[in-house]
Amino acid sequence: MSMGRPDDSLEPDSCMRCGHRMSVVEETPLDVAGQDVVLVRERCTNCEWEAISAPSILRSDHDLLPAFEPGKTPIGRYSRVVTALSREPGFRDLASDQVAGTLLWYALGTDRADVVIKAHQGYHDEPAVALTKEELFDTWQAPPGRGHRTVTTTDALRVNLQTVDQLRRFAETDKGAHPRIALVGRPCQLYTVRKLRWDEFLPGYELALGLGMFCFGNFATAHYAGRELTRILGFDPSQIVSVRYGDDFEFLSNSGQMKRARLSDVAGFVSPNCLQCTDFSASFSDLSVGRVGGELGFEAVVLRTPRGEELFEAAVRDGCVVTSEAVYDGRGHMEDEEARIVRLLTAMVELKKEITRRIH
Q1: What is the model's pLDDT at position 333?
Q2: Which end of the chain is flanked by fewer CB atoms within 10 Å, N or C?
Q3: What is the number of other CB atoms lying within 10 angstroms of the CB of residue 121?
Q4: 12 alpha-carbon distance from chain centroid
Q5: Using H for helix, E for strand and C for coil, what is the string for 117-141?
Q6: H or E stretch covering 150
């Protein structure tokens, strides 16, 4: 389903799904980062599609969704997909997210951003901030936590209010010294910073870069959950290339191995705050990066905006990252890789949607 407008003549209070009138059904006052905010829930009078907004601090989806078109493909709108390897010392020694860390360091080092904020270091409100390569490397070694202050908005996209808290805390301490923020986070965090009215809520600051990480919120593939899912499947979850749905889930690995699992077998690996979210690949980012199987060390990069593409191409040109196309010297290889990654990411998106639908 496309999430853009049915036509360009829609009024701000009309439904983005069918074009009929939206009606306010609930207004909830909240304290967000010390500011009184009213969350407004609206429901379409025709198709009952719902949207949640906060007019004082968050943009309307009428402004946001047509610009990013998250429903254009199962993994959102993108210009191309590549696989890449970090060539930056230090980051290459990390177990994961080497390319993402390298690109953020490159953004800092080439004056494309003044600060990197890693959303949700854990279950606390303090932001994880990096101004130098050393700080970024230290920050990168701790895994991001899941935000616990989220509200559901259009088509199960989630606004993450903890991210708003963290940005305000940073600005209050920073006092305008580092106004261009590169933020790295999960889909709900990128969606939130795109909706945020920066001029009103964080005057003097701007989102210089949004780097998204693939969200395994519904199927955690690390630590205990990853080990248990590996035990159930018999292969690493990152090797999943497709999922079939019937009475059970059927998982197919990239080696051709098929494993059937009951919903009850895998539902325990679902994060409660991610149950209603159907984004997986961070559709509202400038570029999304993550490990989704394939050859050791290579990570998938989904290029979405001109800003994200320019950053990536510059990092390649300056030798900070290298693409698999360059390593294997062939466009045919690149096209095969893009097709493989799109298939895998699409499978993960559909899996997330299906398990959300069944649980609710």
Answers
A1: 62
A2: N
A3: 17
A4: 26
A5: EECCCCCCCCCEEECCHHHHHHHHC
A6: strand 150-152
Amino acid at 42: E
How far does the chain reach from its first CA to its final CA, in angstroms?
20
DSSP labels, 34-74: TEEEEEEEEEETTT--EEEE-TTTB--HHHHHHHH-TTSST
Q: Please list the residues that pair with 180 across neighbouring strands.
A: 206
Q: Which pLDDT score, from 0 to 100, does residue 199 have?
A: 92
Q: Is the pTM above the cut of 0.70?
A: yes
Would you kindly state where each structural domain of the chain is located, as residue ranges?
55-218+270-360, 223-269
Determine how β-strand 206-213 pairs with β-strand 128-130. Answer: unpaired
Provide the strand spans (E) within 215-313.
240-245, 249-253, 258-261, 287-290, 299-303
Q: pLDDT band at 47, cuts 50/70/90? A: confident
DSSP state, 272?
A: G
